[in-house]
């Protein structure tokens, strides 16, 4: 769960950073992936923000049956999406997406 929280935070960072370089599509893609992680949180605790889920000595609830299979299978769906996001950012950085008028 801690690792999913970390990935969730990085997706917020990347999406908002993409807005700074005028990459709205990347922002939307990052938040789509974030929604998938928040669905995993909801599956475990019934809430999207889990401030009281972690407790001293353990966790508040045990994950439901099928949770670990769902998390294990999620990279099969997410990885191609993340690669697409990386390609979009690389094209923007190299100027491949810029209008021809900007190339001089």
SS strand fraction: under 5%
Side by side, the strands of the main sheet go 1-2
Give me the Rg, rounded: 17 Å
Roughly what percent helix?
A: 55-70%
Query: What global shape is seen?
Result: elongated
Low-confidence stretches: 99-104
Q: Termini, distance in Å?
A: 49 Å
Mean pLDDT over the full residue set: 79
Would you report the number of β strands?
2
Number of helices: 3
Structural category is mainly alpha
Q: What summary fits the major beta sheet?
A: 2 strands, antiparallel
Order of helices and strands: HHEEH
Summarize the structure.
The chain contains 3 helices and 2 strands, in the order ααββα. The chain is mainly alpha-helical.
Describe this structure in words.
The protein has 104 residues and is mostly helical. The protein contains 3 helices and 2 strands. It has a two-stranded antiparallel ribbon with strand order 1-2. Helix 1 packs antiparallel against helix 2. The protein starts with a helix and ends in a 10-residue tail after the last helix.
Which structural traits does this protein have?
3 helices; two-stranded antiparallel ribbon; 104 residues; 66% helix; disordered C terminus; 4% strand
Topology diagram in text:
Elements: H1 2-20, H2 24-45, E1 54-55, E2 58-59, H3 67-94
Antiparallel strand pairs: 1-2
Helix pairs in contact: 1-2, 2-3
């Amino acid at each position: 769960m801690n690792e999913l929280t970390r990935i969730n935070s990085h997706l917020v960072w990347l999406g908002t950073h993409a807005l700074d370089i005028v990459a709205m599509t990347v922002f939307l893609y990052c938040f789509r992936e974030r929604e998938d992680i928040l669905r995993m949180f909801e599956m475990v605790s019934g809430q999207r923000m889990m401030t009281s889920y972690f407790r001293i000595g353990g966790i508040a609830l045990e994950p439901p049956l099928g949770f670990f299979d769902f998390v294990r299978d999620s990279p099969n769906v997410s990885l191609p999406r993340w690669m697409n996001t990386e390609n979009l950012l690389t094209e923007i950085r190299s100027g491949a997406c810029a209008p021809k008028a900007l190339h001089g």
